Model the fold of this input.
Amino acid sequence: MKTYSIVLLLCLLTPYLGNAQENFIFKKAYDLKVLGRVSEDTSHFQRIDSADLQNLPPAVQRYAKFSAGMNVVFKTDSKSIKIHWKLKKMNTLWNMPSVAVNGIDLYGWNGQEWQYISSGRPNSEDNQMIMVENLDGKMRNYRIFLPIYAEVKDLEIGVLEKTTLSPPDTALVPSSKIAIYGSSITQGIAASRPGMAYPSILSRRLDFDFINLGFSGSGKMELPIADLLAKIPAQLYILDCVPNTLPEQVKDRAYPLITRLRMLKPEIPIIMVESVKREISNWNSAMYTRVNGQNDEYRKTFDKLVAEGYQNIYYISTSELMGDDHEATVDGTHLTDLGFMRISKTIERYIKDSIAPLQ
Amino acid sequence: MKTYSIVLLLCLLTPYLGNAQENFIFKKAYDLKVLGRVSEDTSHFQRIDSADLQNLPPAVQRYAKFSAGMNVVFKTDSKSIKIHWKLKKMNTLWNMPSVAVNGIDLYGWNGQEWQYISSGRPNSEDNQMIMVENLDGKMRNYRIFLPIYAEVKDLEIGVLEKTTLSPPDTALVPSSKIAIYGSSITQGIAASRPGMAYPSILSRRLDFDFINLGFSGSGKMELPIADLLAKIPAQLYILDCVPNTLPEQVKDRAYPLITRLRMLKPEIPIIMVESVKREISNWNSAMYTRVNGQNDEYRKTFDKLVAEGYQNIYYISTSELMGDDHEATVDGTHLTDLGFMRISKTIERYIKDSIAPLQ
Done:
C-alpha cells in the first residue's frame, strides 16, 4: 500500500513518465500526416520552406523555422503513446511557460471533437515522454501540436510492439486551408501550451488546415507576404498584422498588401483583424494616443477598400477580441489561454460568416 | 519621426522601462497596507509567520515563505510608479511563466473595480521596474500582487518627487478575511501572472482579505492546519485540499480536520471544494479509478457531517469547477487563467451564498 501511495503521489504532481519496461516502435512523424505548413512536400518541421523565405524580412525568416501551429495527426490502437522530439535549442520567454515554448500537446478524437490528453514536458534539446498509457486499445485518432517558439529538428511517434501506427482517417484530415498572418499573438505567445495558440484552437474546432504565419515582433505588412499568402491554396485569409505595424506603416502598407492579395486571389475572402487593445494604454495617456493610431489607420484602409467596391472583405474591431474585464493578457499585450479562447470564439464566428456565401 | 518610430516599437514588444531621468522616492511596502498574511504584525513578506509553522509538514513550512496571494495596497498622485522587489532566489517551473513565479502585477482602482495595469518582469534576484508612467496625476489607489512561487526579501514602492505615497483609502481595505487551504492549484500554479491565481482574482472581486494557504504538492489535510486556520479571524474557510491527498488519506483525515475546525470556530461557514478532475483520467483507465477515489471520499465525509447535523458546510462538486471543454489546464492538472477564471466564478457564487445568511 505504501508503494501504491508513493506511485500515485508522483503521478499527481510530476509529469507522467510511464512504465519503462514497455517496448515502443517509432515512426517518423512526417510519414503520418503533418498539418500547418505552407509547403507540404518537405520533411522539415518548419512552417515556411526555406526556399519561400527569400524576400521576407530577416526576423520572419528566423521565426518561420519555429513550428508554431504545426500539428501531426495519426491513428493507433496502442495502449501507450510515446513522443520523441528533438529541438535545435531550448528557448526561454519570461511571459510564457517552457511547455508552450518547447513542448508538445497530445489530443485524441473522442468521436465528436479533439479532446486534450496531456502535455509533453521539455527537459533538454532531446526529449522522450510517454504521453499516455492504459488506453483501452481501440483504434483511435490522435493529434499532437508542436512547439510555438522553438525549431523542431526531429519528431517520432512511438507505439507499443504489435500495434498499428498509421496516417489518420481521411475524414479527420481537412481538405481546405486557412492562412493567418500576424504578430507574436498569432504565433501563440503567451499560450500555456502549444495547442492553445488561437489558430490551433480554431484548427481543432473547424475542418480546416490552419497555416500559422504569426511572427514575434514582426508581421509588419511587407508587400512580399502577399505573394507568399497567395501561394497557399487557402479558402480564407486572416490578416491579424496590426500589433507591430506603426500607424504610418499601416497607412502606407495595408492597402497595397490587401489589393495585391486580392489581385492574386480574386475570389478568396479576407478577414482584417484589428490589434488587441494594449492594457497599458488605458492608463498611460501617451500610449493611448500612439496605439489607437494603428487601428484607426487599419479601419480607414477597410473603409477605402469598401468604398472602391472590393467585396468579401470582413473586419473585426478590437472591442470584440478580448472581453471587457482587462484580464485576458499576461503582460497587457499577449493573450493568455483566457484571451485566446475569447479571440477564437469571435474569429470562428467571422470565419463561418465569410465562408458561408461560398458554400 | 524615425526616433518616434523606434521608441514606439520598443514600447510594443518589450517591457516598458520608462524614462530614466525621473527621480523616484521609495517607501517600504510594509509601511503601506499588506494583505494576504496570517499574521499582520510582521515586516516579512511571507504568508505564515515562522512562529506559526512549527507543527506543519516540512514542505508547507518551506512554501509558506513564498508570497502567493500577498498583495499591497496604496495610494498616490504620482504620474509614474516604480517597484523594487528583491527575491531570495529566482525559481523556474516548466508549466508556468517566470512572471507568475517571480514577478509582480500592478492593478489600479478605476472607481468601480480593480483593473489590470501592467506586469513586472523578473530578470534577477533584484528587480526595479517602472510599472506605468504618463498617468494623469490624480490621487488614485493601486494594488500589487506578489510572486506565487518565490520568496520576497524586500519590496519598495517608488513615486516621483513631490508627490504623495500613503496607505489606501479605508473603504478599499477589507475588514473581513477568508482563508483558503489547498494545493498548488490554490497557491496559483499555473497562473500566467501573480494576480491570476484564483484566490487573488476573488480578492479583487469581493471585499475580503483572502489568505492563500495553498501549498505545492501539499495541503494534505494534516490535523495541525485546523489550529492554524482557526487562528485566522476569518468569516469563511474554504477547503480545496483534495488534489494531493490520497483517497485513504481523505478518508482518514477530512473528518477530523473539519470537525476540529468546527469545534474551534463553531459559527464560521466552511466550503469544501472537490479536486479538479485530472484530464489524463479521461483516457488512462488506471488513473480514472485512482483519482475518482479522492473526491468520492470527500463527498462521503460531507454526507457524514450533514447526517450528524453539522450546519453551514457547503460542498462544490468537481463538475462545477473547470468547464466542459477540457481546455482549462496547462498539463491536465494545473489550471491556466482560463481555468482560474472559471473556478473563481463558481467559488464566488458559493461564497455569496454561504456568507449571506450571516449578514
Q: What stands out?
A: The first strand of chain B starts at residue 24 and ends at 28. Residues 1-18 of chain B have pLDDT under 50 and may be disordered.
